[in-house]
Structure to design on (678 residues):
């Protein structure tokens, strides 16, 4: 395990960026580890891979990878990634984003990218709050929870990001927590292999921001919370219909998988059709 | 690898070299003749025809064109494509231009070549969508936050929509900066004869590729006031691009005053120091005049009409047309105003470029304005009246 970690580090990490900005107990570094392992296992050509991100703690990840990286404006990573991928389809494009970046300010780009189905992988690190700015409520903060901008409790219901992705048309959708490293790595591999918009949501602790306000200040407490408050899709299926409809736990696992036409494929077909067409151009 | 335009194929798609075309369509032609190979946009009056024309033409050249979910996403996709090696652009109007301001600043900070066409309409807010205006001229310069420089061109005719859009792509690549083509609803929607350039008139200037090998290449290293080499994504150079203050390696250096100062001064100076080279103006002067007009865009057509009327009446008047508006051609304006008592600035707004003119002249001549809003272009007679009776105060 240690040797493998070292191999991954030597192969993919941008040394000058170390040490990272992440706090003790933060889960974002784990996601970097899981992603690099998935990339290594697939054998993705790192020279032909672009990592895009928006703004926030999770969006700092591309900087730590010795590869092309585009650290963009808040919420817009998926739109930038769309330009990279559609212009140069031979590149693999992976987006790191967070709950505030992707579901708050960037929500519109997220649903449209899922609908448009451009081939890319979006990894959303959901830590239930805006961590970089010090722990404000986000679109995934559970109702009633505390944050610096909901000091008396959150009045809003959180987004279920995976249901949102499925509803918007993403062909691959999975959610795991930090407690399932191998499942998460496998999910990222599947998302990368998916021809189209692959979405992986990873619940990761933010002890400094969300945790300090909600009695989850240390890492073990966070991991216990995930155990108590999540249920795998397979375990859920074992429950009786009544138990299933009463379930309030967060469902984890591969939540959606389908094959559907991918954008760039369709564009290539369109270009081919136009080239075959011998009619003179009609220009306006 | 120098980029070459497949002229024969492009002209098969564009059609005849001589056409009677609309300004928006001409911008699209200019983009393609400028080597454009990616477009992303969002429908907005009076710029929609640019997107519609690109949607017809680009796929026939094997290139992608995308309608995004909004103007923010449009410019974002353009910047992403530019880093993947594209000569990319978007086209919009006032409300969309406002939404793009953050992306413009990101492109300045990351030195991303890109072109934005703003077919200006009457604002503020939704305003008069179908009516022309020149109300975004100061937003073009100062709309995004923080210190930066911008390059902006102002076509006054449909022919110039072709010529200046072509030029915009080359300047964007050369200076690694967003370049704005500030047209308006009148130029965008009117139809005039255009002549597309011959093959030997086409030259595509490209971003300077790395001269070092991966590992030795330092992506944002450049002498003060100069433009760094640019490695496109996927070429093995492992470039990290961020809107944060960054060092020469491109890595965040947000709490380093010296790094920030060096970076932002270089971004500003690379354009500001080249103002003379970037200046494009047209002068129409005669001996003995004491009054001059400084104009740009569609209002330059009104000004040219005013000059004809005034001279026919035996009045002496000079005219300076700004073809490049930013970096502001201060010296050209000062040289023009030398010996003149009064400068009249006609604009489709309540006074924007007139302020920049006044600042440039530092009191050497009185600056007056002829302002018109509401959707009609300025009748030449109104400028002649200002010449005789005086314009509005700046």
């Amino acid at each position: 395990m240690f040797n493998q970690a070292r191999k991954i580090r030597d192969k993919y990490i941008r040394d000058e960026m170390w040490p990272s900005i992440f706090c003790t107990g933060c889960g974002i570094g784990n996601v970097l580890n899981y992603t690099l392992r998935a990339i290594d296992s697939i054998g993705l050509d790192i020279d032909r891979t672009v990592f895009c991100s928006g703004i926030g703690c999770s969006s700092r990840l591309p900087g730590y990878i010795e590869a092309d990286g585009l650290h963009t404006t808040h919420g817009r990573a998926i739109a930038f990634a769309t330009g990279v991928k559609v212009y140069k389809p031979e590149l693999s494009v992976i987006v790191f984003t967070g709950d505030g970046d992707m579901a708050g300010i960037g929500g519109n780009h997220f649903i449209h990218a899922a609908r448009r189905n451009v081939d890319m992988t979006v990894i959303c690190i959901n830590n239930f709050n805006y961590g970089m700015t010090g722990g404000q409520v986000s679109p995934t903060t559970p109702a009633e929870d505390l944050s610096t901008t909901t000091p008396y409790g959150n009045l809003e219901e959180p987004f279920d990001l995976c249901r949102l992705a499925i509803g918007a048309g993403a062909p691959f959708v999975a959610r795991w927590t930090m407690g399932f490293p191998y499942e998460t790595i496998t999910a990222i591999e599947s998302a990368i292999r998916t021809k189209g918009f692959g979405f992986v949501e990873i619940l990761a602790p933010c002890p400094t921001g969300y945790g300090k306000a909600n009695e989850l200040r240390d890492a073990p407490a966070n991991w216990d919370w995930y155990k108590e408050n999540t249920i795998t899709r397979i375990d859920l299926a074992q429950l009786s219909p009544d138990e299933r409809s009463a379930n309030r736990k967060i469902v984890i696992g591969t939540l959606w998988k389908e094959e559907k036409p991918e954008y760039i494929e369709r564009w290539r077909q369109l270009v081919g059709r136009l080239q075959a067409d011998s009619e003179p151009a009609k220009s306006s | 690898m120098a980029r070459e335009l497949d002229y024969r194929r492009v002209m098969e798609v564009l059609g005849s070299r001589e056409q009677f075309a609309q300004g928006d369509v001409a911008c699209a032609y200019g983009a393609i003749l400028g080597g454009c190979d990616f477009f992303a946009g969002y429908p907005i009056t009076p710029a929609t025809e640019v997107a519609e024309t690109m949607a017809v033409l680009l796929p026939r050249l094997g290139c992608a064109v995308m309608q995004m979910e909004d103007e923010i996403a449009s410019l974002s996709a353009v910047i992403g494509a530019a880093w993947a090696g594209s000569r990319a652009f978007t086209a919009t109007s006032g409300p969309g231009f406002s939404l793009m301001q953050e992306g413009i600043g990101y492109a300045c900070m990351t030195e991303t070549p890109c072109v934005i066409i703003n077919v200006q309409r009457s604002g503020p807010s939704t305003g008069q969508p179908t009516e022309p205006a020149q109300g975004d001229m100061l937003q073009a310069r100062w709309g995004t936050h923080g210190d930066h420089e911008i390059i902006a061109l102002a076509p006054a005719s449909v022919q110039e929509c072709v010529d200046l859009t072509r030029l915009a792509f080359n300047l964007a690549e050369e200076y690694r900066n967003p370049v704005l083509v500030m047209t308006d609803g009148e130029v965008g929607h009117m139809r005039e004869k255009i002549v597309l350039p011959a093959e030997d008139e086409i030259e595509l200037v490209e971003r300077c590729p790395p001269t070092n090998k991966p590992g030795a290449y330092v992506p944002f290293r450049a002498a003060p006031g100069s433009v760094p080499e640019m490695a496109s994504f996927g070429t093995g150079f492992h470039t990290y691009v961020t809107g944060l203050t960054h060092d020469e390696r491109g890595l965040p250096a947000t709490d380093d005053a010296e790094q920030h100062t060096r970076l932002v001064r270089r971004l500003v100076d690379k354009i500001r120091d080249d103002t003379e080279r970037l200046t494009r103006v047209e002068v129409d002067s005669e001996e003995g005049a004491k009054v001059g007009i400084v104009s740009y865009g569609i209002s330059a057509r009104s000004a040219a009409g005013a000059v004809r009327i005034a001279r026919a009446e035996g009045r002496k008047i000079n005219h300076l047309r700004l073809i490049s508006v930013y970096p502001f051609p201060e010296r050209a304006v000062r040289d023009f105003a030398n010996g003149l008592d009064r400068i009249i600035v006609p604009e489709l707004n309540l006074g924007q470029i007139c302020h920049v003119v006044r600042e440039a002249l530092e009191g050497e001549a009185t600056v007056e304005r002829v302002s018109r809003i509401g959707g009609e272009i300025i009748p030449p007679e109104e400028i002649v009246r200002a010449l005789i009776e005086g314009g509005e105060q700046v």
